Description:
The structure holds two protein chains of two kinds. Chain A contains seven helices and ten strands. Chain A is an alpha/beta fold. Chain A has one domain: 3-Layer(aba) Sandwich (Rossmann fold), CATH 3.40.50. In chain A, helix 4 crosses helix 5 (145-157). By secondary structure, chain B is of the alpha+beta class. Chain B has two domains: 3-51 and 289-458, no CATH class; 74-248, no CATH class. Chain B has 14 helices and 15 strands. Mean pLDDT of chain B is 80; it is low at 110-115 and 384-409. The chains are: A alpha/beta, B alpha+beta. The interface between A and B is medium-sized, with 32 and 24 residues.
Amino acid sequence: MLKVDKLTKIFESGDQKVGAVKNISLYIPDGVFSTIIGKSGSGKSTLLSLLGALDKPTSGTINVDSQDISKMNDSKLIKYRRDKIGFIFQNYNLIPNLTALENVTLPMEFSGIKKNDRIVRAEKLLIEVGLTKDKHNRKPSRLSGGEQQRVAIARALSNKPKLILADEPTGNLDSATGKVIIDLLKNLAKSENTTIVAVTHDHAIADQSKITFKLKDGRLIN
Amino acid sequence: MGVLSRGIKNAFRNTIRTISITFILGLSIAMALIMFLALQTVNMKIQNVKSSIGNTITVSPAGVRGFEGGGELLTSQNATDLASIDHVAKVIQTTSDRLRLEGSSTVSFGRESTTNDTSTTNLTSPTEPGSFGNRQRRSETGETAATDFAMPIQVTGTNDLGSLESVNASKLDLTSGEKIDPATSENVALVGKDVATKNNLSVGQSFRAYNKDITIKGIFDGGNTFSNATIIMPIKTIQLLSGQSDQINSMIVQVDSIDNISLVSNAIKTKLGEDKVDVTSSEDQVKSTITPLENIKSISLYSLFGSLIAGSIIILLTMIMIVRERRREIGVLKAIGSSNGKIMAQFTVESLVLTFMSSILGIILGVIFSNPVLKVLVNNNSSANPSGANLAAGGPGGRAMGAVMRLGNDAGNALRDIHAIVDYRIMLYGLAAAIVIAIIGSAIPSFFIAKVRPAEVMRSE
């Protein structure tokens, strides 16, 4: 469950104040695949980074799993990102000198899971997202875009998060591959009972989601 | 995969960069190490010069040098007076005599000739008179030739065997037997190895001198022909046997520090009277030896700091560059739940790996080049130094001149014999320097790491 109340983010540069996210309230139940749609500069990515505790809101509250993250200190936020959130990015953001398997084990290492357990889970996840075993020990540079995004999804799932935040997950992929990735995310939301929030400007993807939020100039429009 | 293995892996992420940094940083560590070694070696040398040849003052009776000149000899009371002066560590007294071969027609050669002269021995001097010995003999006896002339043997009485100067030796190694106790008045002696060879002497045997049997306790190598042709005995024994009781030929005053030489020299003159004693200190010679060493010391000190700073800056800039380059990656790590501490630790490991490899290279280069560099430093700085060669021309004379000559040689040797001492500690110093550099080099980048916002990851390139 994700509940956002009167969320506002204002960026200050010098004397200028720019409201990137203005007074947004929304609610998404568990296990729902939802999308945020809007043009570039509409505040989609800012909203996503506030939800993922990558940035702190100017005002308003964010409740994830009945915890208000807007009140958390830095060390609690690190744990929140590690345990409750899975991130998927447009440009995958895998660590280039680590193998696919090592990339997936990384969040589990941060949460203190034993080495053998990490590897077993990472292998299982990679198979689940459709990366064949022969590619587990490849570095990202030797994987296609679609394969890299699969690894990123496996990494996002590794700590069994309550919320997966995806920033233009298909933006760098061809439409066929993009469809496969979206199907994968939809199925995961169902099977893992994970809430998924995907930011996109692709209406075809938005049409597939259960809930769609439209953003314009930092405000929700319906 | 842990912080450690990721840090190590990252250090080799860009091979060309890793090689270049290892090489540049290695050179600066080598430089630091070489300068550290130079500094240590020069410091040791300065201490050595100061303590061994620098801190003595030779006090001779005014107008007397060894067996030349004229005037009043010094007394035990004088020695007691000198010992009471501040900063005087020790007063070494010597009394010398010359022993004539029994039955030789030669007069006592350099000492008062009396009818019942007992300054005789059954030992033959290993030294051939040569033109110098014959000239001295003629000047003292007026003879032009003698068929049975033999050089006398010098016997030195001292109250301290620790002072090489007092026994005219450049070293005092026993080839057999043991040292004598210089504080006694027993009829015992150390015999120079040439005297022993010439007269077939060995430890435990005795020889005749002053009509007494003198027991040989040991045979020594004094490091030069002159001292190897002499005999050393306790000063009280010589004073008793030669009838010079309470007389001292010269004294060597050891001062606690070279910095107090002038002070003590003046105090000696005041105490004993400037017209009564000649005071010779080695201060000027020591200064001329130490000045180039001090120059090398400051050069190496500045270079040491220079290269340490250079090394720190190299690794610092490298790490800043790496951190800036991996801003997004740091953002990703933060976004997926890594703490600042873990990321900093990972970068510190990377910086440590780079400096560790560099220090290995630095140690190897340091060991290879420490001696050549030190030699260049010494040669460039000692060209203006008046070394042993100039002083050795001082010519013949008594003990004081001998001491100065020897000092000149020592001073020259101090520079010529200088060489860096390379041992296992160099490894520890090298690694210590590397760790210091690595820590400095990752401290500031760590600050940058902490400043990277996790939202950085959302920026599209």
